[in-house]
Amino acid sequence: MLTGRGWWLLLILMLQVAFGAAVSPRFGEGIVVIGLVLLTWFFYEWASFVYRVYFVLPTLTVTREVHDQRKAVPVLWANGEFEVRLKIALRHGDLPYVTIDDWVPFDARVLEGSDSATMIVTAQQAGSFQYLIKCIAPGELRFEGVRVRIADRQGFFYHRVHRREMIVYPVLPRLTGAEGKRRSAKRHNIFPPPGLHRLKQPGGGTELLDLRDYLPGDPPKMIAWKPSARRDKLFTKELESEVPVRCTMFVDASEGVRIGTRGKTKIVRIANLAAGIAEATVGDRDHVGLVVFDETGIQQMRPQRTRRHVIDLLHLLAKAAARSTPLGPFADADALARLSYPIASELYPELMTKSINTTPFGMFWRPASDNRAMRWIAFFSIPLWLFCFTPLVALVGWFAKSKAILEVTVPVLSEVVIPVFRWYLERVFKNVGAPGSILGVILFVLFSIVGFAVLFSVIPGLIWLFNGLAGTMGSSRAERTRRKQLGLLFATLDGDAPGAESHYLHDDQIFARRAQRFLADHQARYPVRLYDARGRYLFRGRPKLDVLAQALNYSVARGRDNELFVLMVDLIDLVDELEPLLQAIRVAVARHHQVILIQPWQDDIPEPPKEAPKNDAIPKRKAERFVERGYRAIIDEVESDFITQYHANYFRLRKEFGRLGVVVLRAEHDETVQMVLDRMDRLRGVGRRR
Amino acid sequence: MSKTPATPPSIYRRLMAPAALNYLILWGVGLGIYFMAMMGKGNMLGAILVIVLAVPGVLARWVISPVMALIITVYLMYDPAFIGLLTLVDSGRVVFLGDGPGFDLNNVVLAASLLAYVIGHYRLNALLHFGMAEDPTPRRPNTTGKRPVRPEKTVPNDELPKTLVVAAACLIVGQAVWYLLALYERSSRPNAYGVGATRLLLVLWGFGLVLLVLVAALTYLRYSRYSRAEADMVLRDTFFQEMRRETDRLQRWRKWFKDRMARQRTAGK
Questions:
Q1: For B99, which residue in chain A has the nearest alpha carbon?
Q2: pTM score, two decimals?
């Protein structure tokens, strides 16, 4: 609570008062009176600040509103600009110097104004400020609350809290106006009634499809009188079948499409595309439905064409886009701790403070048993140590007349120690020369024993000491502090059983998984390992194929006359395992439905060539290139291989689906929405083209 | 078109703003009275020195200014006009004021002037140079290097009058405390120790008592306002501290076993 400035003044004033009181009989009372007056003022300011921290600050309320150009809105749009307005009020008291820092969500960018404001807030006078944000991508904006920092008017005291006022705003995919942008060349003169399109099947529509011979039982009103009169034979009119086209989009929300940089993940691209298709489809008064699926299950919306339905559909897409980065295995626990720690310190300052989330010194001591080298040192030093101390222990046993000690030590002495020492003495005396007397020899032996004993105990002792102390300083200390404090925070937030924090402290995988969940909960991105130790991609998402096939079969079973199924799925890594999906598509095609596959294209992969490359020969002179350009050449080669493989998979995908009459499109293509709409027109079976 | 950051107004312009001007006047009046009071005691040189130190304290955020002013004042009380220092003789014996009654108007005036100066100095510093701890976070790094200052709009009109009332009250309380302490000491004579030592002990006891009460009150306030999560964490932390060695040992064995199993799996056993 006290700042450095405050501590210094307090210290000087206390010294002044003590000194003044001590010398007051000799040099007057001026020193002590000045000190006491200033100290009284200091304590008054302290007491005021404490009152504000403990009694006024808890009554602070923050009201947040997000406005578009006209009014407060509960829902935002991707790429839209919105004004965030905050109102800070107090129930009683005053805060003369308070700074409010808003927690701007990671998926928003401040365009104008500041997300931080310094103000005075009293019970009568509320503070407010606003700033302009832009939503980067569809999903959710999670405002975590505000950081409140208060200080006194002099800067002696400072206090910071995080006022959690968590509120989540859905960010819907931006409507692109795909309906308005379509080509307007009118190829026919008949404008069908809303939502009704002609199908070349006889039905109950209003447009004439064909004439046929009259059959008994045909209603007289259906008789075409003019042709009947001309041919002198009764003809019956057949009218077109007027049914709406139903488009069902299958959106992949599996783990694989959620990897990538903020706002540029595949799921974001898919969501934007699906929103555009939905808008254009409903603009044509057709029905549109949505199936969001991942590796475990689906969320489904049956095709409809109301405005409300489209908004619900956009909400579902926003939820899909808001799904976090997947929790990957084999994550780097320390890297995640470094990411999580500042966020935890900012969002949970009261739980991360060292007064309640302590870091005792002993916690940092590095036990010798954790160190492999230390174990070897102990392995060798302990026998040597015992070897040197055995004669001394035997001596003690002899003086104490302890039979037990002698029984243990004498055999060791006679079998091990004495032969070794004899060998040692022979070597030494041979090189250096023996002492002149027996006493000299005895003294030499004793000094040797003691010397070796000290050597063998002091050196490992020092190593043990330095090894232990190494944990109390530098990066090791910081890492352990982060792990312990975060571990205790996670255990507290989850309401775990006591002792759970020790798992987080010692088990990297448990900690990494929880830290990833923590970051995901707070919408922070984190690195995930994409490949396992054997180089296998970890997010292929094989189970999603079964889920998708099942969902497609379900939709086919409940489909009507003419359905269009738009599959927006990342299948690049699953080209070898497409069979369940292909079977489902065969069923759909057999039922005269149309299927389109939209493959979300990876950001850093260039466009594929027009045709699949035919030359599969291995490029020559690879080894020479590696030798000439070193690692750079290897990296280029790996990148090139990856791109080639990606393109090859894409062409294979096109080939496999092309056999079934399924068009495969890339999601980054500008005309993708338009192509889907064209395909729907083809379904209607008329010459209208956009 | 590139946006160039606006140049902040100069220190003199900021000093002329109404809120800062009020405290500048308070600061100046405090120093003026201090100068006169010290002149009355024959400490002109010392008073000039304090003023020389005080001016950069405001203009250039010289944080040590008030502390230096206090130390010099204490020294001047001990060795008026630096006579001891100038003559290099035993300065402690130059003036002997004797055992005072606990109240001296000159001391009160001096204390009031210094209080005005100290208040003015710190509040001006908060308005001009550095008002609040920076407390940067990874999401909010201080890239500009600017220190947060107290905005002028946060200074209400009645702040200065209230400050003066508080200062007057502190002056009375501070003087009264000393008067009562001296009175108590005088009434309890003869003491086992000398007068100075007795007063020092009384002051130390007083400090101890005040700090004890303060710490107890703050601790109680902190405990009583713990949220459920904070209280939970206190218990968990206590458990951690008490069981740390045992759980460490268990976890070490567990880790060893997991590593061993992982090695065996890798080896295909």
A1: A25
A2: 0.76
